[in-house]
Amino acid sequence: MRKYHTIGWQGITVNVPENWRLAYARGTFKEGSLRVDDEQHPRLEVRWTKAKKNAGLTSAMKRFLAVLKRRARKEGKKLQLSESPQPFTTGSAVRNRELQCFSWSTDVNAWGAIWRCRDCNRIVAAHVIFHGRNKNFTLVKQVLSSVKDHPSPKGILWSARGLRFRLPHEFKLRRRRFRTDSSKMEFRVKPRNRLIVAWKGPAKREPDAADLTRLASRAFKKRSRRRFKTTKTERVLSHDGIAFVETKAKRRSRAGVPRTRKRFYGVAFFCPQRNRRFVIMANDRRRTLVSETLSHFKCH
Question: Based on the structure, what is the number of domains in the chain?
Answer without folding.
Answer: 2
